[in-house]
């Protein structure tokens, strides 16, 4: 398991390659890249600033990964979340999961993203032509996270 | 008794005009929820911590509910629902 | 949509970047990389040869992508499947899906992999210390594909 | 009438010792399933196409069931369940 909270961009291809490097038992790497969109719910977004809670962010992400490792048979996990000011099209988050089989890799990758969205202390502030505003949390994110409890 | 280290984030930090404070555990405050009520009672901008507001809390960097106990010396954070990812 | 059937390796990072390049409406890219494992059901695998049905492979993959595009709101899809002889640790398949939101991207990516596993005409022949053998189809792959009909 | 272009893949190709053939539509054969029965009836290795075997078919590069109609001139492929990905 490896978790990073950083200002810098990341190289998704290198991260995916690292998840299987040296372990030919890995048959599947599922991954996710989240990016800054140029549109919020109704307005153009010119930039976004991600605030976070240093210390807790790393801890929260690590706990989410540990929970995923308890639920599925995983051979590697990697989470990178950026903070600071980002422009539309820039990468925000990477989640990669390696496993022997694709079912475990897909499920764990989506689980980590769903939990990250509701449990990791990051907050987005969008800059729009009408000024800056904090992004509201989405109910759909709570619902996405809650469905993992039903299993 | 050690002081609490209280932190505020994002829109709540802006509403309070304050990113954090150190505070001795107030008399009668034994839980995170009671601390929140105590702070909201300061009036004016502190109403942002009031009962009707969507505020989350972390105790020593773990998300907790209002019943989480306080003894003094902890790090307590208040913030709006998270929106990362 | 873009589908490739090729002998050559691919660059997952470049493919992921291309799926959002020039479209800041993309907020999510889910992707999958499948690799040759060094173990089959019971034996060590020294190499694997992927046979395919030229012409039908491209058509079958394209039809799977079209079906995914009808089910979810997608902003880009990319499928690459290699053929020929591959060693353990080598990449076999890439599926990448871009969307505004992660739910669509994850679902479509997993759907494409599940359908590919049961509908795209590729066959694996493993080389083991006891000789070469054709890999048997897995019932679990049929079940994985069938669950998309229930929705 | 144009000939059928018949293709065999993977373990089936090996069992038959043949990767394909061109064949005039046999008398009485009107479906992919009937073609398969006709071929299996050749005996010996062709039993690999017999009723009990797990064989899939494609007609003009699309997976089909045994009822898919043949008129002559089509490309018909027989193969085991796929195992790519």
Automatic annotation (TrEMBL), chains A, C:
Q: Which UniProt keywords apply?
A: Molybdenum cofactor biosynthesis, Transferase
Please write the reaction equations for the catalytic activity of this protein.
2 [molybdopterin-synthase sulfur-carrier protein]-C-terminal-Gly-aminoethanethioate + cyclic pyranopterin phosphate + H2O = molybdopterin + 2 [molybdopterin-synthase sulfur-carrier protein]-C-terminal Gly-Gly + 2 H(+)
User: Could you tell me which InterPro entries the record lists for this protein?
Assistant: MoaE_sf, Mopterin_biosynth_MoaE
Which pathway does it operate in? Cofactor biosynthesis; molybdopterin biosynthesis
Task: State which Enzyme Commission number(s) the record gives.
Answer: 2.8.1.12
Instruction: Enumerate the Gene Ontology biological process terms.
Output: Mo-molybdopterin cofactor biosynthetic process
Spell out the molecular function terms from Gene Ontology: molybdopterin synthase activity
Oligomeric form and interacting partners:
Heterotetramer of 2 MoaD subunits and 2 MoaE subunits. Also stable as homodimer. The enzyme changes between these two forms during catalysis.
Instruction: Tell me the protein family, please.
Output: Belongs to the MoaE family.
What is the protein name given in its UniProt record?
Molybdopterin synthase catalytic subunit
Instruction: Say which species the protein is native to.
Output: Pseudothauera nasutitermitis
Automatic annotation (TrEMBL), chains B, D:
Taxonomically, the superkingdom here is Bacteria
Q: Its Gene Ontology molecular function terms?
A: nucleotide binding
| Protein keywords | Nucleotide-binding
Nuclease listed as a keyword: no
Q: Which InterPro entries match?
A: Beta-grasp_dom_sf, MOCS2A, Mopterin_synth/thiamin_S_b, ThiS/MoaD-like
Q: Name one GO cellular component term.
A: molybdopterin adenylyltransferase complex
Q: Which GO terms describe its biological process?
A: Mo-molybdopterin cofactor biosynthetic process
Q: Which family does it belong to?
A: Belongs to the MoaD family.
Which NCBIfam families does this one have? moaD
Listed name of the protein: Molybdopterin synthase sulfur carrier subunit
């Amino acid at each position: 398991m490896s978790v990073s909270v950083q200002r810098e961009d990341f190289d998704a291809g290198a991260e995916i390659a690292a998840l299987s490097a040296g372990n030919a038992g890995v048959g599947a790497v599922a991954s996710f890249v989240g990016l800054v969109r140029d549109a919020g719910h109704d307005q153009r977004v010119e930039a976004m600033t991600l605030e976070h809670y240093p210390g807790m962010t790393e801890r929260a992400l690590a706990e989410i990964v540990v929970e995923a490792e308890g639920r599925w048979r995983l051979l590697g996990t990697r989470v990178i979340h950026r903070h600071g000011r980002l422009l539309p099209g820039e990468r925000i988050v990477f989640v990669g999961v390696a496993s022997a089989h694709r079912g475990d890799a897909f499920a764990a990758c989506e689980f980590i993203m769903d939990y990250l969205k509701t449990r990791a202390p990051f907050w987005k502030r969008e800059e729009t032509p009408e000024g800056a505003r904090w992004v509201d949390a989405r109910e759909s994110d709570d619902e996405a996270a809650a469905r993992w409890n039903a299993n | 008794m050690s002081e609490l280290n209280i932190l505020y984030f994002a829109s709540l930090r802006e509403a309070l005009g304050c990113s954090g404070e150190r505070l001795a555990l107030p008399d009668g405050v034994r839980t995170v929820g009671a601390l929140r009520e105590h702070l909201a009672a300061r009036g004016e901008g502190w109403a942002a911590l009031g009962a009707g507001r969507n505020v989350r809390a972390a105790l020593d960097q773990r998300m907790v509910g209002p019943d989480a106990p306080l003894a003094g010396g902890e790090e307590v954070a208040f913030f709006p629902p998270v929106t990362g990812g």
